[in-house]
Amino acid sequence: MSHLIRKSVQAMSGYVPGEQPKDAGIVKLNTNENPYLPSPDVQDILSMIDIAVLSRYPDPVCMELRKVIAELHGCAVENVFVGNGSDEVLALCIRSFVERDGSVGYFDPSYSLYPVLADIEDVEKRPVSLDAAYGWQMPADYSASLFFLTNPNAPTSLRYAKADVEPFVDGFDGVVLIDEAYADFADENCMDLALGKNNVLVGRTLSKSYSLAGIRLGYCVGNAELIGAMFKIKDSYNVNYLTQEIARVAVLDQDTMKANVSAIVETREMVAEKLMELGLSVLKSQTNFLWVKPLGIKAKTLFEELRKKKIIVRYFGNDERTKDYLRVTVGTAPEMFKFLDAVEAIVNGGA
Ligand code: PMP
Questions:
Q1: Beta-bridge mates of residue 200
Q2: pLDDT value of position 252
Q3: 230 and 81 in contact (C-beta within 8 Å)?
């Protein structure tokens, strides 16, 4: 059989998404979803949709949704691309901007989908190792056709200053996609770089701050020529009708998104402080998750013990750079108190 499958596909490992357990009673803190409801306008639009429209193809260029996103960021619709989750946007960046003999760069550790997307296109990977404190220094003479700069970074939760990102993109020959999946939880973002520089795109998603991981909507903003290239190669109807409509009303309702983000940020700070009181080390998060290093107990053991208590967090155990940490999504305050009680019982030996 294997002769029927591309060699590069045989050789690659696929992306492993976090698990989505169905049993009730689980505290699910493993995939950086938002625990709060999306905008109530989403419920309204769903009840207003006439099912007759579903027999027609959706708008291939998502004009009404892109108008709303363009208005939000103060740019033209020609500067906005929307995709089936930002994962699709990232994949289309490689297909639009990287030649067969080109290369894709990203930080290590960072979002583990990037190397998988490069493998799918069978292009060279040029990861840049972060230092011990997950800080960022580009190697001398570094180049790549496309660089995925995750800011704030995942899974480390740290934000890089725009003052450092700007000189990097200015000196970089290829395209830089600043992946701002978590930017709504941060105190700074780089959106204005996308609108001011020819080689910069900023990617966003409705999966985190807008509580809409289930509809799959991501977008990027940037130079109209780059955006036009992505439109040329995308599937004709890459964003379905329901998603276009739900996303449109959700983006219009900035108040609900901001209120949910504030609640998460407040809970995040409370949980970080309590974990540090319990003797764990916690990085200064600018996201909706915490990057936590337990001391006196192995990360893997803590992960397994939490699981026994029906609390699921994310453990990236097969990498030296991440194996001593757990990534904990910030849930509701009651969920996080359950999590904190469980951590306390486990680290105090009462597991
Ligand atoms: N970028 C980063 C850094 C992420 O962590 C994620 C979520 N896994 C994504 C992109 C993908 O988001 P989406 O749900 O829009 O595909």
A1: 176
A2: 98
A3: yes
Q: Is 294 helix (H, G, I), strand (E, B) or coil?
A: coil
The domains located in the chain, with CATH, are 17-37+255-349 (3.90.1150.10), 40-252 (3.40.640.10)
For the segment 334-347, the average pLDDT, to the nearest whole number, is: 97
The atom of ligand 1 lying closest to the CA of 154 is 3
Helices marked H in 98-235:
113-121, 162-171, 191-196, 224-233
Average pLDDT over residues 151-158: 97
pLDDT at 318: 85
CA–CA separation, 219 and 92 (whole Å) = 11
Range 247-275 average pLDDT: 98
Rounded Cα distance between 126 and 174, Å, is 13
Alpha-carbon distance of 291 to 133, in angstroms, equals 12
The per-residue pLDDT for 17 is 85
| Mean pLDDT of all residues belonging to the chain | 96
Is residue 199 within 6 Å of ligand 1 at its C-beta? no
pTM above 0.85, yes or no: yes
> Does 329 sit in the ligand 1 pocket, CB within 6 Å?
no
pLDDT above 60 (res 29): yes
Round to whole Å and give the CA distance between 84 and 207. 11
Using the atom order of ligand 1, give the atom closest to the CA of residue 153.
Answer: 3
Cβ of 150 closer than 6 Å to ligand 1, yes or no, is yes
How many Cα neighbours within 13 Å face the side chain of 33? 21
pLDDT tens-digit map of 41-94:
999 999 999 999 999 999 999 999 999 999 999 999 999 999 999 999 999 999
> Which ligand 1 atom sits nearest the alpha carbon of residue 208?
14
- What is d(CA 76, CA 140) in angstroms, rounded to the nearest whole number? 36
For 45-103, the DSSP string reads: HHHH--GGGGGSPPPTT-HHHHHHHHHHHTS-GGGEEEESSHHHHHHHHHHHH--TT-E
CB count in 10 Å sphere of residue 293: 14
- Cα separation, 104 vs 168, in Å, equals 16
For residues 237 and 200, give the distance between their C-alpha atoms in angstroms, rounded to a whole number. 25
Q: Is 154 near ligand 1, meaning CB less than 6 Å away?
A: yes
